[in-house]
C-alpha cells in the first residue's frame, strides 16, 4: 500500500503540488467488497 501511495505522489505533479500546498492529503486504504467499508492505513498518509 505504501508503495502505491508513493507512486501516485511521485508520478503526478498536480497532486504532489496540492499535497505539498496542504490542499489535499493522499491516504491509502483497503476496500472491503464484503462490507462496503474502507480501512485507512494511517502510516501511508501523505499530507
Summarize the structure.
It contains 2 helices and 2 strands; from the N terminus they run ααββ.
Tell me about this structure.
By secondary structure, the chain is an alpha+beta fold. The chain has one domain (2-44). The protein has helices at residues 2-11, 13-20; strands at 29-31, 38-40. A two-stranded antiparallel sheet has the order 1-2. It is elongated. The mean pLDDT is 86.
Which secondary structure elements does this structure contain, and how are they paired or packed?
Layout: H1 2-11, H2 13-20, E1 29-31, E2 38-40
Antiparallel strand pairs: 1-2
Helix pairs in contact: 1-2
For the biggest β-sheet, the strand order reads: 1-2
| N- to C-terminal distance | 16 Å
Query: What best-fitting shape do the alpha-carbon axes yield?
Result: elongated
| Major sheet attributes | 2 strands, antiparallel
The tally of helices reads: 2
- Helix % is 25-40%
CA-atom Rg in angstroms: 12 Å
Helices and strands, in order, run as: HHEE
Structural class assignment: alpha+beta
Amino acid at each position: 500500500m505504501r508503495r502505491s501511495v508513493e507512486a501516485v505522489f511521485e508520478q503526478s505533479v498536480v497532486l504532489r503540488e496540492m499535497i505539498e500546498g496542504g490542499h489535499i492529503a493522499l491516504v491509502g486504504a483497503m476496500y472491503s467488497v464484503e462490507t462496503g467499508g474502507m480501512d485507512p492505513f494511517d502510516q501511508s498518509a501523505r499530507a
